[in-house]
Amino acid sequence: MQLDAFKASLDPSLFRIYRRYLYSRYKATDELAQPEVIHEKAKEKLLKMADKFRQNSHYFDAGDELAVKIGSKMLTGPVGMAAGFDKNCDMLLPMSYVFGFLNPGSVLVRPRGGNPQKPKSGGTVRIIIDDEREAIVNAQGYPHKGLAHVLENLKDYTSRPHGPARILLNFSGITDDYTEDAVLDSCREIIAKAAPYVDFGFEENRTSPNTDFNKVLQTPDFTRKMIDVMNSHVPSGIVKASKISPYTRIPPSDDERASKLESIKVFYENGGDMVVLGNTRPVATRGQKKTFGREVAGESGRPLFPYMLKLVEDVHLRFPSLAIVACGGIFSGEDAWKAYEKGATLVSLYTALTFCGFGLVKEIQDVLKQKLAGSTLMEFIDRRDSKAR
Fold it and tell me: pTM for this structure?
């Protein structure tokens, strides 16, 4: 197909054509479902386009008015690449010219295959794309190449010229030893070994709905243990963040709201700096267009937006000084602005990129500048937060 992949990545109309081509060209294997195959092919293309992104980095320049400061860290732009898009830190170089920050991971200590599937021979999958709803339903279960692979990529990335994006490393302590101590030991190892290469923050992640042991870890008591580990191992000046899954229904139950706010309170009051209000909501897999090997998966994409937005509002009203990354269902500049009105400090994208391409980053930046009407984003955030205190 004679279509410039770089131009297609920036133009939503061309991107839709290119996306259809990829899905017609590449099919599932017996190891990877079709969306996973497409993602791997897209990664290969992006790596080959690193110079193109560098040469055209001015296209994504957010300008001084959209610079955001979190603690002592200044970001050149408010739009980030969300966790899951680059699990193994394979695409840092090209993406560093597009975003204000990168959120690779979730990083694990040991390689992990993820939840089993047989897309070709058995008809079972762990991920599907819902084009009608612009959503992804995912029960991958943390497939990852392991910490050694990530460290090699981080070392290579930091040793060569790259774009201005800073790294917020998403990590999970999940191992095959399902105990709290094993999780905490893994987290210590990841932070200690990755710290020389992380220039923005570390984001702990216990939110995956398709990893059963995470449910045991989502308590205020374990949150306190996690922030203690981060306090003792994250270098001074580096942001400590926690990922929180969005509400499961709107309006949320009193119990669910109270549980999430209590976990955030423990994290914040014991030294946490930021929360990522999360991009995956648990859904039943029964009735999906493909057969899953698990009964529950995580849904991301456009349907998630109201669930995420309500949580951003509740967290900001309760903790107006806490930095918030709004992540989930943002598909336009108007969506991003609504998140800022509710309390966001930053926004990040994953699923929308797979439907719209990287031109969405530019659109969000343009809409934010229009809404700010000559003010800076930091001035808007300061005024908004002062009113909420």
Answer: 0.95
